[in-house]
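User: Predict structure, ligand flavin mononucleotide.
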Amino acid sequence: MKKILHIISSPKGEASMSIKLGNTVIDKIKTEYPGSTVKVRDLTKNPFPHLEEATLAAFYTPAENHTPENREAVKHSDEAIAEIMDADIIVIGAPLWNFGVPSVLKAWIDHIARVGHTFKYTEAGPEGLIKDKVVYIAMASGGIYTSGAMQGYDYATPYLKGLFSFLGVTDVNIFRVEGSAYPGQAEIALQRGLESIVL
Ligand SMILES: Cc1cc2nc3c(=O)[nH]c(=O)nc-3n(C[C@H](O)[C@H](O)[C@H](O)COP(=O)(O)O)c2cc1C
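Assistant: Predicted complex:
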């Protein structure tokens, strides 16, 4: 039995390729681990705020010195980090938008990448504090980036992989639906993406 956290960052609902891909990953996890539970965090319905001066001030104030204002400023971050730490598996739906991730996903990332909580600096260098978790990234793009002329233009996948690796996750896996914008290719791209899922 696993605790799964599903992060959604596409506003397209039932038409979303990244949500379909993420849901299929989750179905496979549930088949492998019967009784697994899923918590859905839809960032498009409940977006995280941009980091403000008060948020940064609270981030860099030790928790034991937090004022009520500091505590209020970090409540979104505390909640997001608690959800991650509580999960065994994190499935992140990531539409490719303008070669990067949608800003709602970036806003969430800015709340979860927090010094002293999800990473720290030691004399030996940075150390990620998100241990013993598996991340599956369900990436959807209109274009094709694993081969051809656009190879190298997908900055989202290396970014997400690098970020989670920095935060301590050693098991980061990417599945893709790509090429859905090519005329007549949407269903084929989706099918190919779903069939590529091997846990
Ligand atoms: C605002 C926006 C920007 C996009 N930028 C890109 C892009 O840079 N490269 C690409 O291949 N597709 C791009 N697309 C197409 C999406 O990646 C594609 O529709 C994908 O299926 C989105 O995931 P979703 O279906 O889960 O929403 C963009 C779509 C939107 C709405």
